[in-house]
TrEMBL record:
PANTHER family noted in UniProt: CYSTEINE-RICH DPF MOTIF DOMAIN-CONTAINING PROTEIN 1, CYSTEINE-RICH PDF MOTIF DOMAIN-CONTAINING PROTEIN 1
Domain of life: Eukaryota
The protein's name in its UniProt record: Cysteine-rich DPF motif domain-containing protein 1
Pfam families on file: C6_DPF
Every Cysteine-rich DPF motif domain range: 13-105
Entry similarity comment: Belongs to the CDPF1 family.
Amino acid sequence: MSESTIEPPPKLFVCDLCGLNSPFTYFGQKPPNTRAIVLLEECFVTKDPFSPDKEKFLILGSACSLCDKCVCVGTDCSLFYTKRFCMQCVNTHLDQFPKQIRTELAKKRQNASAAVS
Ligand SMILES: [Zn+2]
Ligand SMILES: [Zn+2]
């Protein structure tokens, strides 16, 4: 046991759907150290570990506006249509989304199943 420096454990973002997890540095609409960036939604944000540029950041995910689940921004897990929706809510309320969104989702599913078989 040689823990000389005690740092608070990093806050962890975990996607409720795919299990993706990553520490995040900020949650909100205006990440620190960014010039005039205001996000469309409150997001879990982390500094881009691959960039020395302080203003670079990655959006990990956000909370579903319906069920409040934390979901990553992966297209399999969430959809942004004026608000963030997790895929479970998208599927539940599919008939309330515009045709364009439904068509895109249907296309994506076809592509996914075609890739598997
Ligand atoms: Zn996910
Ligand atoms: Zn949801």
